[in-house]
Design goal:
It contains six helices and 13 strands. It is α/β, with parallel strands linked by helices. The protein has a single domain, classed as Rossmann fold. The strands form three sheets. Strands 1, 4, 5, 6, 7, 8, 9, 10 and 11 form a nine-stranded mixed β-sheet that branches. Strand 4, helix 3 and strand 5 form a beta-alpha-beta unit. The longest helix has 19 residues. Bound molecules: 1-O-pyrophosphono-5-O-phosphono-alpha-D-ribofuranose and uracil (URA). The site of 1-O-pyrophosphono-5-O-phosphono-alpha-D-ribofuranose has 22 residues, from strand 6, strand 9, helix 4 and helix 6. One of its GO terms (biological process) is uracil salvage. It catalyses: UMP + diphosphate = 5-phospho-alpha-D-ribose 1-diphosphate + uracil. Keywords: Allosteric enzyme, Glycosyltransferase, GTP-binding, Nucleotide-binding, Transferase.
């Protein structure tokens, strides 16, 4: 599946402030909300709709409404910063949680939590702001597939080419929506130029 990179002047603006090391957690959270809303709209452009007959104040018409509910699945902890725009914008959203944490030396993600709603029949949107090696994303996608998800999209704010390659190899049918595609990983598997540790900046840790 192709990688979809966000093209919107507001996205570029927000990303620049997210990257700025002087941006404090309160503003960082607001910016995360804003770019996640833009990404939520991109990741749902092709949602199925169905006919609905209604009456306007003037005449009956057949309109269209969303045909299926969404499930948004943040990868804890940083993914939590991307959930609220989905809840605020879409009429029928359930939330699942996959807890993964990268080891500081190996950068391999360890699973510590999982709680998912029924996923069959839903558009399942797995969200995590940083796609670095792709290890966390690939594991989370394995988990939602094993839980019955069939229509899955992965959404991140900053992607590294290495992470995109990992997800494309392990889950070739899953579309990836990214706010930006950065240059590379450094020797500690952080994204360059990136924005540092998203979870730490979101929560001030
Ligand atoms: C960060 C980030 C992703 C992961 C990406 O989380 O939020 O989940 O690293 O790296 P990867 O693509 O190499 O797997 P981290 O493990 O630091 O946990 P946190 O969200 O609790 O800060
Ligand atoms: N996780 C982050 O929060 N930032 C990176 O650059 C890589 C992984």
């Amino acid at each position: 599946m192709p990688l979809h990179v966000l093209h919107h002047p507001l996205g570029t603006h927000v990303l620049t402030h997210l990257r700025d090391k002087t941006t404090k957690p309160a503003l960082f959270r607001t910016l995360s909300y804003q770019i996640s809303l833009l990404l939520a709209l991109e990741a749902t452009r092709d949602l199925a709709t169905e006919e609905k007959k209604i009456e306007t104040p003037l005449e009956p018409i057949t309109g269209r409404v969303l045909a299926r509910p969404l499930a948004v699945v943040p990868i804890l902890r940083a993914g939590l910063g991307m959930v609220q725009p989905f809840l605020d914008t879409f009429p029928d959203v359930s939330v699942g949680y996959v807890g993964l944490e990268r080891d500081h030396t190996t950068a391999i993600a360890r699973s510590y939590y999982c709680k998912l709603p029924p996923l069959d029949g839903k558009r399942v949107i797995v969200v995590d702001p940083m796609l670095a090696t792709g290890g966390s994303a690939a594991q989370a996608l394995d988990v939602v597939k094993a839980a019955g998800a069939k229509e899955i999209v992965f959404v991140c704010i900053v992607a590294a080419p290495e992470g995109v390659a990992t997800v494309e190899k392990s889950h070739p049918e899953i579309p990836i929506h990214a706010g930006v595609l950065d240059r590379q990983l450094n020797s500690k598997k952080y994204i360059l130029p990136g924005l540092g540790d998203f979870g730490d900046r979101l929560y001030g840790t």
